Amino acid sequence: MSNDTNVDDPPEDAPAGPDQDHHERQGERSPREGDGDRRTDVDDPTDGFEPASDEDDEIETVEDLGSTVEVDPGVEVDEEIAEDDLLGGLKIDSTEDIEVPDRLVDQVIGQDEARDIIIKAAKQRRHVMMIGSPGTGKSMLAKAMSQLLPKEDLQDVLVYHNPDDGNEPKVRTVPAGKGEQIIDAHKEEARKRNQMRSILMWIIIAVVIGYAILSSASPLLGILAAGIIWLIFRYTSRGTDAMVPNMIVNNGDQRVAPFEDATGAHAGALLGDVRHDPFQSGGMETPSHDRVEPGAIHKSNKGVLFVDEINTLDIRTQQKLMTAIQEGEFAITGQSERSSGAMVQTEPVPCDFIMVAAGNLDAMENMHPALRNRIKGYGYEVYMDDTIEDTPEMRRKYARFIAQEVERDGRLPHFTDDAVEELILEAKRRSGRKNHLTLHFRSLGGLVRVAGDIARAEDREHTTREDVLQAKQRSRSIEQQLADDYIERRKDYELQVTEDGVEGRVNGLAVMGEDSGIMLPVMAEIAPAQGGGQVIATGKLQEMAEESVQNVSAIIKKFSDVDLSEKDIHIQFVQAGQQGVDGDSASITVATAVISALENIPVDQSIAMTGSLSVRGDVLPVGGVTHKIEAAAKAGCDTVIIPKANEQDVMIEDEYEEMVDIIPCSNISEVLDVALMGEPKKDSLVDRLKSITDAAFDQGAVGSASGSNPSPQ
Question: What is the b/e burial string over 596-624, where b = at least 16 CB atoms within 10 angstroms of the residue's CB?
Answer without folding.
Answer: bbbbebbbbbbbbbbbbbbebbbbbbbbb
